[in-house]
Amino acid sequence: MRLSQFHLATVKEVPAEAELVSHKLMLRAGMIRKLAAGLYTWTPLGLRVLRKVEAVVREEMDRAGAIEMLMPTVQPRELWEETGRWEKFGGQLLKIADRKAQDFCYAPTAEEVITDFARQELKSYKQLPVNFYQIQTKFRDEIRPRFGVMRAREFLMKDAYSFHLGQESLAQTYQAMYDAYGRIFTRLGLKFRAVQADTGAIGGNASHEFQVIADSGEDVIAFSDGSDYAANVEKAEALSPAIARPAPSAALSRVDTPKQKTIDEVSAFLRVPATQCVKTLIVKGREGLVALCLRGDHAFNEVKANKLPELTDDIVMASEEEIVAAIGAKPGSIGPVGLPESIPLIVDRSAAVLADFVCGGNTDDTHYTGANWERDARITRVEDIRQVVAGDPSPDGLGTLRIARGIEVGHVFQLGSKYAEAMDATVLDDQGKAQVMLMGCYGIGVSRIVAAAIEQRHDDAGILWPEPMAPWRVAVCMINPKGQAEVTAAAESLYSELAARGIEVVLDDRGLRPGAMFADMELIGIPHRVVVSERGVAAGTLEYRARDAAESRQVTVDELLRLFG
Amino acid sequence: MRLSQFHLATVKEVPAEAELVSHKLMLRAGMIRKLAAGLYTWTPLGLRVLRKVEAVVREEMDRAGAIEMLMPTVQPRELWEETGRWEKFGGQLLKIADRKAQDFCYAPTAEEVITDFARQELKSYKQLPVNFYQIQTKFRDEIRPRFGVMRAREFLMKDAYSFHLGQESLAQTYQAMYDAYGRIFTRLGLKFRAVQADTGAIGGNASHEFQVIADSGEDVIAFSDGSDYAANVEKAEALSPAIARPAPSAALSRVDTPKQKTIDEVSAFLRVPATQCVKTLIVKGREGLVALCLRGDHAFNEVKANKLPELTDDIVMASEEEIVAAIGAKPGSIGPVGLPESIPLIVDRSAAVLADFVCGGNTDDTHYTGANWERDARITRVEDIRQVVAGDPSPDGLGTLRIARGIEVGHVFQLGSKYAEAMDATVLDDQGKAQVMLMGCYGIGVSRIVAAAIEQRHDDAGILWPEPMAPWRVAVCMINPKGQAEVTAAAESLYSELAARGIEVVLDDRGLRPGAMFADMELIGIPHRVVVSERGVAAGTLEYRARDAAESRQVTVDELLRLFG
């Protein structure tokens, strides 16, 4: 490609709303242009990168035996009614009425449509297992679309759905997809981790997220320094401390703590470390209020608490009024000692091994010191309801947990029978008996990968693409202000030579000043840059610089070609 | 690909609503499955064909210098308001309100979005000409979706838009696209014609349709047997007859024609050929009624009449009441003789050269014989308002017109300044002065091509794909009921040998009976079939049959390989 015949449009200024580095750089490099909130046009440059990601995803899906197909983006309400998701999916589901007032949605995902397809197409166990996928535009009506294509409303997704008779077959395909995802992100040159994930509202048995490691990531993951263990912090188990609870040694004593409400305040006021305090949350349970106790320095994990039988799917904190009415004190002074018997008291594993701790006094502006479980406060049940922290032991018993931030770019799920049962998708087994199929689903955020890669790989000058994602592998920059025929010929010849070897090369023949040209090539992240100039042609050398190298160096044409095998 | 690992699902019965051969065959071959009215899932088999068409379109667009990009499918109302098309586009525009009650549409086309992109991206004449394209899902909310993917609501389209300073540049790119379209349809192995088309409501100067010739086509095209001339009949000019109007030789005479209303009835009743009759249509013009006279055997061409200054864009016939009120007789007895002076009388070129003709008497149940222009009836103006018929002289003066039916698969337009002006898309010219850009637009119905190819190429057994569109080029059918190792080895070896040569091959290893296997391969239209059987392995031969050949023949492996170069 000659840049003079391409539409490259780097820009200097980007709107203030672009917070993330990837969003800024994609706008500055001219990869995307905003059409409306959460809607982006992929420019020719951006599309080149997007298509490279798409191609790697397709190759590895095909290699893993998945079969590509294509479902409509517009899906009828009736199918979504069958699974109850027409209502349950929430505001992200973009609902559409056609000219005949029939209801449809713009697909945010395709479990319903593929299950409908499967129940018509698959009749016999002999057709199983089968794994269908598509690479297709999806729409989620985010309430606050932001971060460019990282959280766009319209985006490109690879979604795959497998069908099985029996869990063993599902587990096999799940593993095949897990492996394929590993190959995809490895081939794309990304640092990533496959982490255990909560299966959440989508249901099912097993689930892994594929997280690109980046400081700006919205997800927090915990991984072991001594094993392959990795999990979303939402899911990572905090083991019971190895120590037993010490015997009480202090007497229970109520102290005044005027206006001291948070753990930090109380800890500082009483000169007791937060690790020796117990904090108590009051939430609304299925049958009245529930108290949750955690060690003062630990964060509450809502996803884990969601699974407690006492609580509802969406945890709602009790209001101040409700707390005062039930306990007689305001939040900030609540604690387990003397809590009304009607309120179940769920204690986190790490809080449960404390002795002589500080906790709220259940009277405004007071706390207890020297509090002890059993002696002073009952325990309804000990549970894991906190977020893990760096330094916690790994749940698999091997090593210690570390914490990193990640961007979710892939997700694999064992859905089990959830959708097939709701939609009566059965096949005949080898006995001729109808059996509900089991399903897996496997998603990759194709457009999000582009942004995630930039979050992981950039510097002050711009993007550092992994080679497989770069719009071009090599840029030949021609510096020829005098329009000398030898310089043009040398640049054209090098360009042709590289192209003939199947190396994706772009010739910057726009006639810009060297500085502007180099800045553009660095901004758009071309991995290899070669300069053809009058001086170089005279000396028989080229100036070569790798995008991630500190300096350029002089090479001959032969040396350059050897760089690319 | 091994069919045992593919999802091939041919079916015997198709719904009665499938009228077109292509719709029936695509359902029977299992290429598409209906999700809802006008919404189709492309199965793995169907998608293979669709992607092949897409690839050829992309290659030729790239070769012609167009640059691929990707716009959102969901577009904001504001841009459509700028051109007035939010209202004017009509019911085909699928309108969508998001969760914040902002209005959007599912793009049926992208003139507004690309013009908005261009007015932001293009600042200088130096960036022109430029031609952007995308291959993307579109939606048109057809009032009566039918014919499968031929007239689906959601469909795959290639749309390109070029920007220019000056008509000469627009004409050049238009020609380049015209040529590229010719290469695309030629490479796809289709019989087609590029025909002059009416520019219709989209406006602009020049326009050609690319029509795949097929008896089931909805479009009618006229082409010369003596030149390259071809046009949609809507557009094809009917020349003035070479003969002059004969002098009157008969006297005007009113005759009773009780209950004879149509030309056929009057012609039979009076024993006068339809070619010697004049029929008169009364339509509502901008300022009252207008009469249109045609030769009895000719069809009225509304598109041509639309352009008459007396008439409105959408021609509306006058009602019986209006006609009776204005003329005093009902439709069926109306004619030019004695028509009120207030009604302009537009006469078709072929009707204008008649003498001694029959026409309505303007009194119920009467006609005139021996009528003559000028002597008996005035002529306001002579115009071309009829459809051409086979045998008419070609408008370019070379040869005679023939008539064929076609399926529109491509359309190129010179839009001129229509959109750029409405949206104020300008660039600075070499004098630094802002100039409105000129635009061209170029569409290809990618998914429709699949159906059109089937309409053109099929037989009783199924589809006959042109090789570039076939899901696979060769099918190796293994007949091995005894499970003999030599037969399996021979089939696998042939499969590998073909695949190694880059020939797209499918191995039918499903273990079906030969008849069922052959029927499937014929239905899905694989161009070349090879049978590996016990007998063949023993004889060292293969049974080969081309899809379009009457008989199979025995070949050696070497002979077979030579077939594919």
TrEMBL record, chains A, B:
The compartments listed are:
Cytoplasm
Per the UniProt entry, what species is this protein from, by scientific name?
Dyella thiooxydans
Q: Which GO terms describe its biological process?
A: prolyl-tRNA aminoacylation
Q: Which HAMAP family does the record associate with it?
A: Pro_tRNA_synth_type1 (MF_01569)
Q: How does it assemble?
A: Homodimer.
Q: What is known of its domains?
A: Consists of three domains: the N-terminal catalytic domain, the editing domain and the C-terminal anticodon-binding domain.
Would you tell me the Gene Ontology cellular component terms? Answer: cytosol
Question: Where would I find the Aminoacyl-transfer RNA synthetases class-II family profile domain in this sequence?
Answer: 38-466
State the family named in the UniProt similarity comment for this chain.
Belongs to the class-II aminoacyl-tRNA synthetase family. ProS type 1 subfamily.
Reactions it catalyzes: tRNA(Pro) + L-proline + ATP = L-prolyl-tRNA(Pro) + AMP + diphosphate
Protein name, UniProt field: Proline--tRNA ligase
